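Progress note, project year one: complex with zinc ion.
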Amino acid sequence: MILSIESSCDDSSIAITEIETKKLIYHKKISQELQHSMYGGVVPELAARLHAEALPKILEECKDYFPKLKAIAVTNAPGLSVTLMEGVTMAKALSLALDLPLIAVNHLKGHIYSLFIEKEEIFPCTILLVSGGHTQIIEAKNHENMRLLATTLDDSFGESFDKVAKMMGLGYPGGPIVQEKGLKGDENRFDFPVPLRQSPNIEFSYSGLKNAVRMQIEKLGENGLTEQDICDIAASFEKSAVAHIMQKIKKLFKTKNAKNFAIVGGASANIRLRTAIEEFCKQKGMKLYLSELKYCSDNAAMIGRVAVEQYKRADFTTIDDIDVKTRIK
Ligand code: KG4
Ligand code: ZN
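Model obtained:
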């Protein structure tokens, strides 16, 4: 079995995965969303302190599995350096104390493997990864051959929801709150721009849309926003945010074919996005794969699933070599 640790942002999570069967034996996650909500975003120092409290508590529940462990896996990049450090330090200590090899896992690969938890892999697959930190399209041919086809020039899809929620004082994380408000709003009341509409490039950008929303809020805000204003802004923003992704995906598939398509990452929970992609895949005759909702946001089960494959390839690191990286290409 492999014990995996995830602490790249605001979720403290540990999982135990059986190597041969890929079965998830144990999985627990403690989210810090509530503690960060009043700040309208993740406060890195607070997040690190909460990981330092939560991770040992979860680890205590795994003690009985220690004799069965063959490796310790941990997310080492990308993420917040102070929070990644909490997981990596725990992983180093466990690797030393139990004399087990250490596996460094890329968090983004983890999101892709959330599709494969207790399941076989789907290759080749074109994957849309939408999270708080990333908006990417990845071509995954097999375990080791993955190519980045598109990324964002500035903010990510999920982050734009977080920022729009913060502007309207709705708390964190913004995605679910903006989605809920949007369901009660008029998506045609505000004509927000669809980013990079004229650009032939397959890339994303959310800062312009975010600023258009900010200006609209300021304009209305002179007299304070009503509940209906909030719902209409949410619906109109979400419409443009999703239209942007769909335009770029449609552009991409003008020159490309694929059998399988998948959406992963915390923001893949977005209903409007899921529905639009479902329709598109149907039109194109592509099979659509979604990770289970409970595995969309950050968790250690997906890290453990990547680690199983790395273990089979003996893709190990050492306590001296493992490095925490905020960003990776
Ligand atoms: O993958 P994740 O848990 O953490 C990162 O690795 O970033 O994703 C969290 C992000 C947050 O920005 C959150 O607002 C967004 O996913 N999110 C959503 C929805 N649910 C979560 N964004 C849009 N619509 C949603 N329903
Ligand atoms: Zn994530």
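The radius of gyration is 20 Å.
Residues 9, 131-133, 158-159, 161-162, 173-176, 179, 265-267, 269-270, 297-298 surround KG4 (ligand 1) (CB under 6 Å).
No further modelling is planned for this target in the current period.
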